[in-house]
Amino acid sequence: MKRQWFSYILSVLTILPLSFLCLEHEKPSQSKLTDNTQFKPDWSVLNFGAQCDGKTDDTKAFRQALLQSQLTHPKHTGILHIPGSVCKISGTIEIPPHVVLQGEGRFSTVLFVDATEGTLLRIGGAGGSIKDLDIKYSHPPQKGIAIDAASTKPMLAQIINVMIENPYIGIDLSGNSIDVDHIRINGSSYIGVRIGHQTQHADTVDPRVTNSTIASTNTALAGMLIEDAGGLYLENNDVLYGKIGTYFSAGDNQQILWTFANNTVLADTSIDVGLRIDARYKNSIIKGLNFSNSWSSNIQNGPGIAQYNMNNSDESLFNFSNMRVFTVGQDAFHFQGSLVGLSLQNNVMCGNNKNSTSIYIGNNMKDYNISDNNLSYHCGGWNYNNSTGITILENSENGIIKYNNFSGIPFPINLKNKNMSKNLIFRDNIQK
């Protein structure tokens, strides 16, 4: 019996794993962290050979660091740190999805660009971001883009606390929910910020530009150019100089739908036009522009705020309230071409060209309301203003002009053709 029991135990031991017989068992390895919200690896470009001494070309080191981040953790947020020094760059740097290019602050981290054309930083995919650095060109480039957030149509990208000095185009935006905040662009020679250049049908969705200053050269096309956007939000910006301050210019099959601009300087000392709105093709659409508590000014050639529609495109529902339109070269507001639904309320127009009109209503204007505006000859510290309050051309319909201040204006209203202006109500305005 004992011999049978011993044989049974021996047979069991022969089938057990050897690890079971060890006196010290190896501890099981801990599972890898899989929570995306906690997994935030950090890198430094210095770990990949960057010198950041202002002399050595660090382009290759930046590319290797970003490539490694994409290969190692393609679905997690990573931060590539740049030291507070000068890093010399001579080519395009691609920022992968979910990677933040993080400096130590404007004036501290400087990307010194030794190139005369091409793109410097390109954001790819979702979640790529650029923060806290200065981009400085050694010479003003002949073409190219400092930050490209357009060609890959990224989403949820952020460009925050960045200075760009002397670019051709400062920032190019297309995609979905891109935030541009606390940006300073100095000396852009073509466009400071361009929105929707590479999309149609308002497919650049919910872009935001806030708390930023864009100062172009006097020969630049525009400080800000909007071509295609749905749900554009502008607030607390200052757009200076350039031929045009802010330019809404919808191209072929492009749409600009529902813009909200509040407490922002659309143009400050621009050369030709402060704010220009223009649907350039028959199939272009510009609809639902809302401007409030904002400013526009230009110094030489054109109107403060101008709307054009020479191709009879769909332009409708423009609202201007609590605007300040000062020291403009010609008309304060100039509307030329088909427009349905215009509201001008509680705006102030002062110090403008004596030989022009404060509000110019061109042909084919329908459903407009001009109320509670200050067009007086002496206001805002100036002792002059446009000599004509409101000029209305033929073929306008359904207009209301009431409660406006025309004090001191030699010609409060100028109807070019009384018989062609239908359903015009003019009442309770101040004229003395």
From TrEMBL:
Gene3D superfamilies: Single-stranded right-handed beta-helix, Pectin lyase-like (2.160.20.10). InterPro entries: Pectin_lyas_fold (IPR012334), Pectin_lyase_fold/virulence (IPR011050). This is Pectate lyase superfamily protein domain-containing protein. The lineage of its organism: Bacteria, Pseudomonadati, Pseudomonadota, Alphaproteobacteria, Acetobacterales.
